[in-house]
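[Meeting: bench + compute handoff]

Bench side (C.D.) handed over the final construct sequence. Compute side (W.E.) agreed to return the predicted structure before the next meeting so the bench team could plan truncations. Sequence as handed over:
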Amino acid sequence: MSQLSLNMSGRLVYTSKGFFLHSGVKDLFAKVSALLTQNRFAICFISGGPRTGKTHFSVALGDALAACGVSVLGVEGVQLSRWIAERISRTALRSEEAIIVDDAHLYLEQISSGQSGEFVNLVEAARRAKAKICLFSSKEVDEFGFDEHVRSRLVPGSGFQIGAPDEGELAGLFSLLARQRGMLFSTRKLEYWLKRIGRDIPSIDACLAEMDVLSRTATSENPQPSGLDDVSDEGGVRK
């Protein structure tokens, strides 16, 4: 997967192995993968709130498409304008290429009425080449202030939304997200925290982020908070 570097925070590493194919994304992943491997132009606009797994989804999707022979071009939303200027002006898109844009809302929210030309040119270049575009956004299409030229090109590919996991999938999600932060939980502590957090991915992620900070700042004068006493960090028990 050819892509610009993604600026990820902390120790989080985004890989296909870290993507949990839960019930809220399973059908969506299959539908989008099928659309982006057809020999015709396609545009997909996938929305989901903050910390719902959009970046992991985009990475896993890119790897799945690459395995099918698609040439994946990964771009962050904040870098899309520069990428369009550098790529489209030099080299035509090809039918086997798929552009995957993570945090696309950071680009789209900068487009005001009358400034749609750059994005319209990208979509039309992809249409002529039978290339594919997939955008991941924290906002829905109708939340932006761009004009009808942009809207009319996004609406046909909208309607894809990341859903929530089922209750029975929360333990697996919690464990996977914890491992991505280098944290391991005993069964007892896993049950302890699952009783005390919200039933969605952002709540799990926020809980783990807070525990990560607390465990790193704990000292003998500031002991571990309850619930962290047997959390392991990359093989070592945190005290």
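W.E. noted at the follow-up: The mean pLDDT is 86. C.D. will use this when planning the next construct.
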